[in-house]
Design a protein that fits this description.
Two copies of one chain form a homodimer. The first copy, chain A, is of the alpha/beta class and 243 residues long. Chain A has two domains: 159 residues, MoaB/Mog-like domain (Molybdenum Cofactor Biosythetic Enzyme, Chain A); 75 residues, Alpha-Beta Plaits (2-Layer Sandwich), CATH 3.30.70.1130. In chain A, 38% of the residues lie in helices and 26% in strands. Chain A contains nine helices and twelve strands. In chain A, β10 and β11 form a beta hairpin. In chain A, α3 packs across α4 and α8 packs across α9. The two termini of chain A are 23 Å apart. At the A-B interface, α1, α2, β2, α6 and α8 of A face α1, α2, β2, α6 and α8 of B. β2 of chain A pairs antiparallel with β2 of chain B.
Chain lengths: 243, 243
């Protein structure tokens, strides 16, 4: 079984339509490349108890949990308090984070800036101090900022921690629509029940009508299923293949 | 209290990083414009029982629920079965949808195509038959296809059903960072506890460091809070305002 993951996007700005979340798509592509099975993404408001409930459930249900957003010095940055609430611990200042902040701000240090040193009690720091610094980790929950560039730099630095056996993918672009290929796909799944098989129609595209995706962690199994589907498709229906 | 909404994005293609979901951002902007409070977005796999659990919870927790994806004739289109499962009813063919499909396909009608007539028992059809046809609605759950153009055309046709009192928004772009403005924002919220106040830092931007958003359904209250914040910000820190 592949390791599983869940993503919790924290931010009123996403729910109110001001910002398009791009972090979950970035992480979903990375996790797929790493062979991790992303099972769930949720977008929730900046509310401590709600974050706590969500984090506790995700932490129980998935191997890896990633939160994004709500990390900063202002009133609406309540992710650390939310994660702490979810695990029934206090928020404390991490001594390494505090020392770095005091070095950086010198005489301009203040209570708001020191909030950036806060973590749930028991959290570790993962990764090094280059550029944006390490990622706070509480049990299996990795806590990321919401700014895409910061998230991407930090994730890139620690991504090998999550590497699993890869997924293999093959794609078929079909000129025939789903009304024709549906029964062929059903027959294929009887023969290959463990195949991950997707069927994605497009409209207003003169090129193809359906994109079929076949995936497996077993490249031999995938090859057999792919050959079977190629031979079952109607003559002339396959525009091109990938993978 | 504003009416609330939740969005359920159904699709393995989003979780596996093949497709970036844009439907939730489109709907989040539309709902904000309509004055509806979007409380939660979730992305889940094409699995009947999981869809059922999610739909039942959302239907109980929110006034309006929107699902996208998993509507079609192939094996991975299980949204109708999932919604039916969530409400403990069967999937049935809707007679109006079946008649239209038989008219459209004539002698080429088949079992796969007739799956497009399936709805949870008790579902109504909302909207008219222009272009992509009406939206199946089960209790407070509106069931949309995942193709963005189809979703947008169908939502546009019925959007006035959801109109509430509007949100009013004002924006301040600050040259000072969050470390400076945090305590000013805290003071503002003591005086205006019902204000929706957001603080969004940017990096690598020579123009401004933080975007502050102030919102309320009461324009007079918003104006008072806005004036208060303008007068509390440090001299020269405001680059520009909007709203």
């Amino acid at each position: 079984m592949a390791k599983t993951a869940g993503i919790i996007i924290i931010g009123n700005e996403v729910l109110s339509g001001k910002t398009q979340d791009t972090n979950s798509h970035y992480l979903s592509k990375e996790l797929r490349t790493l062979g991790v099975d992303l099972r769930r993404v949720v977008v929730i408001p900046d509310e401590i108890e709600l974050i706590g409930r969500e984090v506790a459930a995700f932490s129980r249900d998935f191997d890896f949990v990633f939160t994004t957003g709500g990390v900063g010095p202002t009133h609406d940055d309540v992710t650390m308090a939310g994660v702490a609430c979810g695990f029934g611990v206090k928020v404390v200042r991490h001594p390494d984070l505090e020392r770095r902040l005091r070095e950086r701000h010198g005489a301009n240090i203040n209570e708001a800036r020191l909030r950036m040193a806060e973590v749930p009690e028991g959290a570790e720091l993962i990764g090094d101090w280059s550029i944006y610094g390490p990622v706070p980790k509480m049990r299996n929950v990795y806590i990321f900022a919401g700014i895409p560039k910061v998230l991407q730099d930090r994730f890139s630095a620690i991504r090998e921690l999550f590497r699993e056996a890869p997924y293999y993918l093959k794609v078929i672009y079909s000129r025939e629509g789903e009304g024709v290929v549906a029964s062929i796909l059903n027959d294929l799944l009887v023969r290959f029940p463990d195949l991950m098989l997707g069927s994605y129609p497009v409209i207003d595209n003169p090129d193809y009508r359906v994109k079929l995706t076949l995936e497996s962690k077993d490249p031999g199994y995938l090859e057999l299923a792919f050959e079977k589907l190629l031979s079952a498709m109607p003559a002339g229906s396959i525009l091109r293949t990938e993978g």
